[in-house]
Amino acid sequence: MKTKFLKLSLLALFIFTASCSSDDDKTEETPVVTTKVSNIYAPQTGGQGQPVGGEFTKFSFSQNKTVTDDSWDIAFRGTTIIVNGGAKISTTDTGEPERKGQGAVSIVSGTFASVTAFPAAATFVQDKDKVSAITTGSGNGWYNYNSTTHIVSPIAGKVFVVKTHDGKYAKFEILSYYKDAPAAPSETSVSPYYTFNFAYQANSTTTF
């Protein structure tokens, strides 16, 4: 009787230990949430026929803040947006940072919520000499420009899926180019202040 009881006790101990070990082996995944970022100031010098310059404002998706080191994923200056991968668009632009990461971007048509899977690897592009991964210019890039009102309006239905500087993924959509994101910006609205939504995928999956 004692032997049978001992065997049952050892079996119960084994099952309990295995269960605890299994629980410990599970990797706790970070949930993907949508975050709204407001008023990222991205000034530039020059323009209006003069050479454009000034420092880019660099942003990290994982840290959810602007940074000054090489941990940035995207950066803004005026209407120009760059990624931390590839090469400088202008080798003579002292305000444009060197690319130290493996970043790239794929532009997807659809609503922000509808983009749930990572695009094919072949669709991702990086900045390179004289070519921006996220093009500028009215209608061809991320915005439309009204030459009468001089308003810059983000093009609806453009979602940017970014491979971050360290090989993770994020998606973002630009909501406004003006301070405090007015619903109907006017010539008195202050720019360039970016407001955008983003979602960062920290886990080893291929979906948001």
Automatic annotation (TrEMBL):
InterPro entries recorded: HmuY (IPR025921)
Tagged with keyword Cell cycle: no
Entry superkingdom: Bacteria
UniProt cross-references to CDD domains, sorted A to Z: HmuY
Keywords: Signal
Pfam families documented for this protein: HmuY
Position of the signal peptide: 1-23
Record's protein name: Heme-binding HmuY-like protein
